[in-house]
Structure prediction request, 587 residues.
Amino acid sequence: MAAKQITSAFPIVKKPNRGQKSMKDSDQLPSTSTHDQAAVDSIDDLQILKNFDLTLEFGPCTGITRLERWERAQKHGLNPPDEVKDILLKSKDEEYQMCLWKDYEI
Amino acid sequence: MFEKKGGNHPDDLLSKPSQTHKACERQSGNFSDCSDRFLLKDKTFSRQYAHLYAERLWEVRPKVEASARKKWVPYTVHTMRLTHTSVYIPLGKDIVIRKLHELKSDETCVVIGTLFKHMELKPSILQEISEEHNLMPQPVRTKYVDESDKLYLEDELQRIILMGDLDVQTSVTGVIIAVYGKEPEDDQGKFHVEKYCFQMLSDQVPRPVIQNDKYLVLISGLEIGSNEEQIFSLQLFVDMVTGMLGNSEEQSHCAEICRVIVAGNSLSSSTQDKDSLQKAKYLSKKTAAGSVDAVKTLDDVFTQLASSVDVDLMPGEYDPANYTLPQQPLHKCMFPEASRYPTFHTVTNPYDFKVEGVRFLGTSGQAVQDIVKYSTNEEPLDILEKTLEWGHLAPTAPDTLGCYPFYKEDPFIINDCPHVLFAGNMTKFDSKVFKGCGGQEVLLVSVPRFSQTSTAVMVNLRTQDCVPMQFAAPSTMEPNR
Prediction:
């Protein structure tokens, strides 16, 4: 009996991911620094928005968007901080627009 | 009812038809609608009512502050030694207005906030749930007042209990109030009230002078569909307004009616039949709702009225409209015949409008009835007067009266002083002129239920007084005057 190799019955199939996985890792390394900066900015912004939500002087925050709350506070002369409005106009992301408790029903 | 000016015209009635008969022209009134704030633009119910209370406080607080500064000037009392008389010496400075979290003990100051009345007997869903195992539901009462009710003052951050001169029994939750007093050192957590005040009624726009008599008719509580419906009296009313009754003199008087307002409860509570919900579906499949026939009758009545005069139909507690205030206009598809006339309008409850420069504001009575339930006030005119003083049409909304969760505005705040304030579906007709401290004169009208009293109200736009119109059929008892 000749030595039968399993590879004659089941040929080797090279998976396409194997090579790319290592390439991906090497790709990520130089770009993390720019990602970090954007991430840090967004964390700061989200912190400012969170503080805006928690400031009780501007009234209840659940059930309305932050921009609506800002405009309502502006209308009644409560002096909401302008930087909050700038952040809200920058991004349309739900994380920014909706209040802290957006995942909870009422 | 209509005074006979000049001689009789005995030949008019039962006379031959003549070619020279003059047609009566109905008076028209300059009408403008101011109820836009009561129309709901978007309907999102996923909001809490805290926004409505916050909005109410922010909007009314500056006005209450102005009222407080005007009324209260801080003073000291100096008793003269020889004559033993007390002299009030103004201190020459302004009153101190504080928020609740800035209160200092024993400092006489003014605090502005929302009144909250804690009532033991108020029905509460939490009590129902906690008593489930005992299966003792709370009985439905006509009044939920009790001796032990307490008043709290709430601003955005805190609340404090109020003691002193403020009458608990006649107050209701939801009114924005300024209280003058202090929190004593030895009784912390309680605010001793010496004086209190509300928002000042805004200045009235003066009414223009009208040359001729013009009337506006208010009618409410037709309650079609019940055993007590007064179809004959209603037909008499329609015939009177459309000028089918009386001789030509009477008809020319009726032609001075320029508008008819139907203030709610055109259908009766028995049309809101909930029994069909309990019965099995196969039993109730073929039965039509009780309201279908009643609405057909109403359509008929309004077609007759609208063919001759402007009609505004407001929804009421028992009408097929939404439960929460402000009630939206009834859908025109319910009145296919009457809707063909441009003089037929379905409007909101509450309703705010101007005819010939006279500003009317009114509701179908739900706010007044709610205040009757949750305070010791009984007379509808007293309550209407109080709503003007408090500056709010429905202060108990949303606490005990259903209300839409507004967040941008509170449309029930009375910003412009009306000339006539009316409430429909009251037990009897009554009217009074309320004189405000700024010289305003408001006619308060309580419009009775037509099904009980067969009475409608005519308001004279020139002289701003009103008279009741009573219709008695031979089979009914004489109504009490």
